[in-house]
Amino acid sequence: MNPLLAIIKKEIKEVLRDKNTLFGVILLPIILFPMLGLFVSSLIQPEVEEIQQIDVAVLNLDAGTIAKEILSNDTVRQALNQSGIRLIILNNLNIHTESDAVEYMKSNTSLRLLLIFPENFSFCIRNQIIAIIEAYYFIHENIPMQEDTQIISYVLEQIKSIISTYIIQNINPNANPVFIQNPISALPVTVYRGKEYKGVPPGMLAGVFSFQIMFAPMIILLLIMLIMNSTAMSVASEKEQKTLETLLTLPVKRTTLLLGKIIGAVIISILGLISYIVGFKFYIDSIMHSAYEEVFVAESITSLFTLSDIVFIIIVTFISLLTNALIGIIIGTFSEDTKSAGTITGVLFGPIFAISFLLPFAILRTPSMLTIIGVSLIPFVSPVIAIFMLLAREYLLFVIIIAIMIVEFIILLFTTAKIYTTEKILTLRIKLRRKRSEA
Amino acid sequence: MKYVVDVEDLVKFFGKIRAVDGISFQVHEGEIFGLIGPNGAGKTTTLRILATLLIPTSGHARIYGYDVVEDAEKVRYIISYLPEDAGAYNRLTGWDYLQFMASFVAKNKKELEQMVKEGAELSGLGDRLRDLIKTYSKGMKRRLVLARALMVRPKVAILDEPTAGLDIIHAVHVRNIIREYARKYGITVVLSSHNMLEVEYICDRVAIINKGKIVAEGTPKELKEEYNAENLEEVFIRVIKNESPTSHN
Ligand SMILES: Nc1ncnc2c1ncn2[C@@H]1O[C@H](COP(=O)(O)OP(=O)(O)O)[C@@H](O)[C@H]1O
Ligand SMILES: [Mg+2]
User: Which chain B residues are within 8 Å of A251, Cβ to Cβ?
Assistant: First the structure.
C-alpha cells in the first residue's frame, strides 16, 4: 500500500465533503465574478477630467486641397486653441505616409492622438459623402488602467463642428443639413504594445485588459487564501482530533505525511483554479456579447497575455500555492484548535487582500527596483507583483521575484519539515501559550 | 530479551515543568499493564515517550529491545498507539477511516481487507460504519479508534485513557475488547487511567503514578493487601499520605 497516495486520497475526500470548501471552490466564483465586473467597470469608467491642452497629431493625406485649407486656416486654429486643442501637422515634419506617422507616434510618448485625413477627403466633402477619419490612440503605458476615451470624442466633436462651419462658410452653404451636421466619422484605432486594434476605442481596450490584469492576481489571491485556510484547518483539526498524533506513531515517514498534505492541498486548489477559470470564461463571454457585440466584429482584441506569459503565470501561481500551503500548515500547527486556526486565517484575509492589491498598484506609480524587490518579500504580494512585472516586460525583476519566491518556499519547507519531524509538532502550541502568559 | 517494555529512569521536562520525574517499570509479554494516577500525574507524557512522540530529557525506554528514540522507526512497526481523547476524521466514514489507517500497515491488498474486516468487527458498529464519523457519538468514536489500534494486531498496544468519558455501556464494551483481544493474540498492553476502580478489572499489574513519580507498583491484589485497602482508590490515598508525612505539619 502506498501511504502517500492514501494520504492524498484522504485529504481530497475530506475537502470534497466539506461544504465550506466546496462553497469557496465552486460557488464563490459565481457570486464573485459579477462583483468583480462591477468593481472593474467602476474603475474603468472614464473620469471627467478638465481638458486643458491636448496635442493632436494630424497626418493629411488628402489628394485635394480642402483638408489643407482647413488645417492651415487661422480662425480654425484659433477656435481649436480656445478648446484647448493644438494641432501638430506631421506633414510639416516631413512625414507623409500612415506607417511613418504611426512609427513617429510610437516613439513619441508625449503624443497620444493621431488623426488621419484620408486621400478622398476633399472628394467626400465636395460630394457630401461622410469622410472617414482614422483616429489613432496610442497607449504608451505597459499596463493600461484608465484610458480617457473622452479625449477622442471631445477632439472629434470640436473638429467636426469646425469642419461644418467651414463647409457652410467656404464651400457649400446649401449643403444637405444632415451632412453638415455629420461631415466626418471616426474609425477608432487603438495602438497598444505595437499592436493596432482597428475599430476598438481605447477605453474599451483598457477595460478589457485591466479586467484581465486584475483577474489573474485576484484569482491567485483567492486560491492562496483557499489553500492557506484549507491546510491550516486540516492540520489544526488533525491536532484537535489527535489523528495527527496517531499518524506520527505509524510506520510511515513524517516527510511523507507532510508531502501528502501539501500535494492534497495543491490538487484541491488546482480543481479550484479550473472552476474559477471556467466561471470566468462564462462570465466574460456573457459581458462581451452583451456590451461589445458590434465592435467585436473587428475581432482584434485577443488576450493580453501571450502563451509564454500564461506559462509563467502558472509557474508563479504554483510556487505561490506551495508556499502558502506551508504557511497554512504552520498556522495550523500553532493553533489551539480548528476554531482558532479559522480565526487566524480569517483575520489575515482582509489585510492580505488589501496589501496584495493596493501595494502593487501603489508601487506601479513610482516603480523603483528596490521597493519592488522589498515588497516582493511578502509572500502574498510577490505573485501579484511578479505578474505585473511580466506584463511590464521587466524580465530581470520578474526573475528576481521568482527567485525570491523559490527561496522563501525552500526555507518554509525546511522549517515545516523540521517542525514535523521533531516533537515540536505536538508541543509548539503549549510553548506559545506559556510565552504569552509569561509576558 | 527479558521485558517487552523496559522503562528506565525516565525524565521529561517541558521548560521548567517536570512532567515525568524518574520513572522506571517493566512489562512482560502478553501482560496488561496500567499506569494509574490523577490528572497531571505524567501518564500521557510517559505513554507519548513510549509511542516515539516525545523525546525524554533523560533516561531510556525500550520496546522489544529497541530504544524509542534511537530506533523510533523500528518501534513504530511494533506498537499501536491510541491517544488520549482521540477522535477521527469527521468527514470520512468509519470504513474510510479504517481503510486509511490500515493502508499504512498492510503490506498488500489482501492484508488490508483482512485488517479492515477485523476492525469493523472489533468496533461493533455494523452498518453505522457507512456513515460519516461526525454523526457518531463519543462512545462510537472511541470504539472505532480502539478498533483501529487493535486491528493491526500490534505486538504492543499503548492506550491512553481508553475508557475515559464513556458511559458505562461503552466503557464495558471497550474494556472487554481490550481484555479479550489482548489475551487472544498475546498482545502486550500498556494503558493509563485516572479511574482507579476500573483498572482492577482490566489490568494484570498496575503502577500508581503521582507528580511524575511511581509511588507503588504490583498486581491489584498485592497492592490491596500491602496497604490493607478495599480497592485501588484507597491504596492511592494511603500511598499519598505515606509519601508526604510532612505535609500535615
Ligand atoms: N506539551 C506540554 N508542554 C508543557 N507542559 C506539558 C505538556 N504536556 C504535559 N504537560 C504538563 O506535564 C504534566 C503531566 O501531564 P500529563 O502527562 O498530560 O499528565 P496525565 O496524562 O497524567 O494527566 C502536567 O503538569 C502538564 O501540564
Ligand atoms: Mg493524560
Answer: 73, 76-77, 104-105
CB A335 within 8 A of CB A238: no
- B161 conformational bin, left if phi > 0, alpha if psi -120 to 50, beta if neither: left
Q: Measured in angstroms, how far is the CA atom of residue B39 from the centroid of ligand 1?
A: 9
Question: Residue A70 in contact with residue A76, Cβ under 8 Å?
Answer: yes
Q: Residue B19 C-alpha to ligand 1 middle, in angstroms?
A: 6
- Atom 5, ligand 1: which residue's CA is nearest? B14
* B89 pLDDT higher than 60: yes
Grid cell for residue B232 = 485501588
The grid cell for A64 is 485635394
* pTM, two decimal places: 0.79
Does residue B17 line the site of ligand 1, with CB under 6 A? yes
Beta bridge partners of B191: B34, B159
What is the arithmetic mean of pLDDT over A18-44? 60
Q: Are A190 and A139 contacting, i.e. CB atoms less than 8 angstroms apart?
A: yes
**A37 CB burial (10 A radius; 0-12, 13-18, 19+):** middle
Q: What is the pLDDT of residues A111-128, one digit of tens each?
A: 889 999 999 999 999 888
Length of chain A: 439
Average pLDDT of the residues in A341-349: 83
Q: Is CATH 3.10.180.10 correct for A51-199?
A: no
Please list the residue range(s) of chain A that carry CATH number 3.40.1710.10: 51-199
For residues B57 and B15, give the distance between their C-alpha atoms in angstroms, rounded to a whole number: 10
Q: Which tops the pLDDT comparison, A359 or B183?
A: B183
Q: How far is the CA of A298 from the centre of ligand 2 (A)?
A: 74
Question: With 50 as the cut, is the pLDDT of residue B163 above it?
Answer: yes
| Residue B102 pLDDT > 80 | yes
CA distance B191 to B161: 7
At residue A295, the pLDDT reads: 45
Domain boundaries, chain B: 5-84+155-247
CA distance A432 to chain B (A): 12
Nearest to A14 among B92, B108, B112 (CB): B92
Rounded Cα–Cα distance for residues B117 and B194 (Å): 32
Spell out where chain B has E strands. 5-14, 17-27, 32-36, 58-63, 66-67, 79-82, 156-160, 188-193, 205-210, 213-218
For B5-84+155-247, the fitting CATH number among 3.40.50.300, 3.40.1260.20, 3.40.50.620, 1.10.240.10 is: 3.40.50.300
Question: Quick check: B48 and A426 CB within 8 A?
Answer: yes
Q: Residue B23: beta bridge partners? A: B10
Sheet containing A184-192, strands listed edge to edge, beginning at the edge strand earlier in sequence:
A85-89, A54-60, A113-117, A131-139, A184-192, A195-198
Q: Nine-digit cell at A364?
A: 506601479
Chain A residue with minimum CA distance to B112: A1
Instruction: Give residue A406's pLDDT.
Output: 96
Q: How far is A240 from chain B (nearest CA, A)?
A: 8
Distance CA B249, CA B245 (A): 8
Q: How far apart are CA A50 and CA A48, in angstroms?
A: 7
Q: What is the pLDDT of residue A226?
A: 83
- What is the Cβ-side half-sphere exposure of residue A394, based on CA atoms within 13 angstroms? 20
